[in-house]
Amino acid sequence: MIRLENVNKTFRGRDGTAVEALRDISLDIAAGEFVAIVGASGCGKSTLLRLVAGLVPTSSGQVMLDNAPVTEPRTDTAMVFQAATLLPWADVLRNVTFPIRLMHQHDTKTDDKARALLATAGLSGFETKLPRELSGGMQQRVAICRALLQEPRVLLMDEPFGALDALTREEMSLELLRLWSARKMAVIFVTHSISEAILLADRVVVMSPRPGRIADIINIALPRPRSFEQEGTEEFQRCAARIRALIFKGRDANAA
Amino acid sequence: MIRLENVNKTFRGRDGTAVEALRDISLDIAAGEFVAIVGASGCGKSTLLRLVAGLVPTSSGQVMLDNAPVTEPRTDTAMVFQAATLLPWADVLRNVTFPIRLMHQHDTKTDDKARALLATAGLSGFETKLPRELSGGMQQRVAICRALLQEPRVLLMDEPFGALDALTREEMSLELLRLWSARKMAVIFVTHSISEAILLADRVVVMSPRPGRIADIINIALPRPRSFEQEGTEEFQRCAARIRALIFKGRDANAA
Amino acid sequence: PARAQDRVLLLLDWIPTGEHAAYFSGVARGAWRENGIELSLARGYGSGDTVAKVAAGVAPFGVADISAVLAARARQNAPVRSIMQVYSHSPHSMFVLRSSGITSFQQLDGKRIAITPGNSHRLYFPEVARRVGINPERIQWVNTDASAMAALMITKRVEAAPFFAIHHYYQNKAARRAGEEIVVLPFVETGFAIYATTLMTTDEVIQRNPDLVRRFLRGAASAMTWANENQEQACRLHVQRNPEVELDDCQGSLRSTMSYVFNDHQRQTGLGRQAPDRMNFTWQQVASSLELAPGWNYSQAIDLSFLP
Amino acid sequence: MQPDRKARLIASLPAWGATIALLLIWEISVHVFQIREFILPAPSAIWEACVSAWPNLLRHTLATLGTVLMGFFASVIISLPLAMLIASSPTTSAAIYPLLVITQSIPKVALAPILIVALGANEMPRIIVTFLVAFFPLVVSSVAGLLAVPPELIELGRACRAGRFQELLRIRLPFAVPFVFGGLKVAAALSVVGAVVAEFVGADAGLGYLIQTSMAFFRTPLAFGAVVMLALMGIVLFQAVALTERLLFPWSSSVEGTTTATS
Amino acid sequence: MQPDRKARLIASLPAWGATIALLLIWEISVHVFQIREFILPAPSAIWEACVSAWPNLLRHTLATLGTVLMGFFASVIISLPLAMLIASSPTTSAAIYPLLVITQSIPKVALAPILIVALGANEMPRIIVTFLVAFFPLVVSSVAGLLAVPPELIELGRACRAGRFQELLRIRLPFAVPFVFGGLKVAAALSVVGAVVAEFVGADAGLGYLIQTSMAFFRTPLAFGAVVMLALMGIVLFQAVALTERLLFPWSSSVEGTTTATS
Ligand SMILES: Nc1ncnc2c1ncn2[C@@H]1O[C@H](COP(=O)(O)OP(=O)(O)OP(=O)(O)O)[C@@H](O)[C@H]1O
Ligand SMILES: Nc1ncnc2c1ncn2[C@@H]1O[C@H](COP(=O)(O)OP(=O)(O)OP(=O)(O)O)[C@@H](O)[C@H]1O
Ligand SMILES: [Mg+2]
Ligand SMILES: [Mg+2]
Question: Do D254 and B132 touch (CB under 8 A)?
């Protein structure tokens, strides 16, 4: 469904220097597949998501979605940004329904659906608050609800649980998995938590920094439905060790 | 050194409803102590830091620092905000030196110190970049460097490693511990990672939500210097289990 | 009467003051209506502007200084003509304070005089100076805004300020309140007698509807004659239409105005007509002050043949 | 609401204080320095002149108010789409901006005869002149607001497939609201002076006309009365815009509120 | 730099195109509709008048330029501190703003006699009038910029113990730079028309003076030539401000750059 072919991305900074964010990325993602991306800070994870979302063009290579090149954002793709990025003037409910309204897919049930989603994210009673009246984690949850309400075929999530505590994170993870298995969308999930990546994904893409490349892709053979009890299994520990090794190898390779 | 006495904080929202963020918080922190705060999203952790920083007034009760009530920010207190909060028009180096310049403590060595700090945070070569040219994790590291450069006596950190991958997070944790033991400042460290809290802190304050209260305070008896190998120790696992229980109990109590 | 009424607009040369009471009272009393014309009046923004607008067809008739008509025709070939000479000489004057001790033009030698840019007084002054034998080069002109001219004089920042004598009445009233009195030195006293305000129209109106021109002038003559003989009543009618004007101000300036229309010269030439020598002198003065070609035949800008 | 209104009342006290102080200083210095009436009449003299010419003054005030309002609304109706057009692309901006600068740097009186000849001696030229005086700051501040949107929000809009137009309408415009209202406040004040300029150029009624006639007849106190009416009209319009902002876009004015409340 | 300059050249093409198209339409319609010279002279007639009166025109242009620049700098010097004062507290804002609105809604010509009598018929009243015409939009947009700073940055400043003044100088002011420059552009254009208004009020040289005298002498093409010089002056000043912004505050103008570059 999603196919990246030898994608390169170089940014030209304002101070004149060029930063090579991604080098030679090739990746295939099937419909309904859940792929996690891990890697050191600055290795190009967000850039990769932006490319798939059609928000920035590649420097070379191509991003294909349903066999058509991605040149601009699509209605069936939803993105959770790394920062919550809420509209400061709109209340929580309007923020969540914003994309739907923008795409004129708003109907009488939209508000109810949005309320239900907010409730599963533990935000009942905050529908009429403004973003600046929320805590950091609450803002992030609003952003997640916004993406989920779009019922996309491709869901791109950039460290969506970064500002959440262990408890909320677990709850949101399970809710995400439930929605994913019900709707069978393709998910690309950037995270800095190795265990989160393993618990959620079918495959984990490990990236190495400077320039961002794919170090390896790990298949997670844990049975579904997943639960946090699986953290103790041998397969989990094997995958975790493998990913840790890849990431920490990056350090040594870099230092060399 | 820092003493909170029966502190309460209630926000009055724009929609007219009041949110009780903190209720009856009492806490004593000694000079040079490292205290971590964990708790569910929205339980008032950021609000607590803001109170200690003197950025918002209490609704009732008092925050004392060196036996004087805190009514406004102090020069010897530095804060890392939950969002990076960089000046969009200034490059990385100027962002890091901004507080020092503002407080007229800038001298010829400041820039060199700032560069050295940025290097330990893995940001060498990015001194002349603008914030919007950095990845999320890089921005967060700049914000941490900014606070550390102030060499404060009280360091308030609000989920400073939230956007960092496992590797960078470990490196930054160790660097923080190194600086802390060298300078012996008091640190209040908000995190959503239980293991991070245990690895770093002398005591972990566990908060429960709605309204935010102190559920319990856990003493961490692990010897210093700390290292990630200690994660395997029995003391670590005992503390982790205790904290998990407290947090997850909050869920049940809330549901009831 | 049963005659169809022509709707006609007359553009004045400036805001309606007592100077225009003849027109307003004439309209109120039906001086034009009995000539088959339904006349309306609109304020003007200076003679030049009125001439331009009449030439552009905004209105068929206008009240404008003859110099503006001559200049527009000579310089820009605007098809405009004066059709009635209203003022037989110009009200150009110098105002001075009695307390300044100045009583004649000779005493203005080397003095400071307030002026506005493009003011015709400044253009004509050299001739006046020549006539009284002072050097116009020695005058210090102080450029300012029209509304500040009198203020500068009464605060004694300048010794004199040029105005039309018609405005003396209310200006002096204001000066009295400030404990001063204004003395008028009319240019005409030095023998500087040039024609001034006229009624004017365009060639097109004359060609298309000569009868309208004739009827319009008949109404104008009757309105002026009546206003001259019934000044107080004329002003009452004027003030009714123009509440900004106070009755005594109106009478003050109408009295003065009428002395420019009905006087010995008018009795010699007839109302609205010109004497060739004075017109000749007028052209010389206008041509030299506005830098027009002196050889140009000014009679093409004048057509007094429709006067009653 | 109640304490809000009280706070606003208290906030308006310094303005009243300043005004009253100014009037007192004015009245006293006129008497002490014996300033001539036709240069600067005392407030008391202005008051008397206004009272005695009241019906007339009212008539002219209403005439001007009509022009002001129509010119102001013309500014709003034309400026906002124009600002969006300018903000929508550097090309249109490069083509339109210089033309707008020209309309600003040439004196409006130079245009008046053309307008009157082209459009006739009716209300139209006055509205156009008022518009020309008032609209430019509104355009500039609206454009500034539309372009000041943080890039993240623009990216959010693009991710939601907002077209150029939707981006303008749903993201840039709401963000620009405080700036648009800043511009509207200037436009309100300038509409008043614009209407007077227009009346200097072509009108038989209105406060501009009254000022001219009163000055011509040396009734300076009445002329100043007209000026005072203009000032009042400016303040009332300005406050009306501010009130509209508070009522329709509470979050907009609250931006001020929060930042100043941190003190 | 090189491709940048080229891009800017290309960006300026529509402006030139628009100007040339406008001139052509103007010239042609004057001939086709036989518009009288004293209402609207053709560009060719204006050009001839300008050429034949060139040294004189240049002299008047320089005189006006002097007034414009002094008035503009007066606006800058006074508006920025004023804006900071207004932005610094709701109290000062409530006290000062209405007074500023008054200065805007009263016609400047009404002030002429007072200024001239009080200060004499010299350069001073002209600079004051220019200033009064130009400064208000600058104040309003600077205030809008100073108050638009996101609350997080204000909190950062407070955490660094920035006082009111430092907060203004080190956080609000840099943030407001794009808005200040928006205001400066308006002020530049308005300074030009302000200087002309000032010259109508009292001057023996300058383009305003030239317009009045040319009109009095029925030299309409020359008067329009003066108007064209004014328009040119406005555009040059406007572009000078824009250039200064690009040179001194590249990040400010780049805000436009990035947002428009997303297209
Ligand atoms: N400025 C504000 N106005 C109104 N309510 C606020 C404000 N700031 C915080 N709150 C409320 O106070 C409560 C605590 O917020 P706080 O930011 O302290 O949470 P937190 O523990 O830091 O959460 P997180 O882990 O998600 O950052 C929340 O319910 C929030 O809605
Ligand atoms: N708009 C931009 N302009 C210039 N350089 C950029 C831009 N965006 C990203 N970069 C650079 O590209 C590299 C990759 O950035 P990216 O945001 O993709 O990292 P990331 O993997 O998401 O990191 P993190 O985990 O810290 O969010 C970084 O070195 C960054 O400096
Ligand atoms: Mg990222
Ligand atoms: Mg928080």
Answer: no
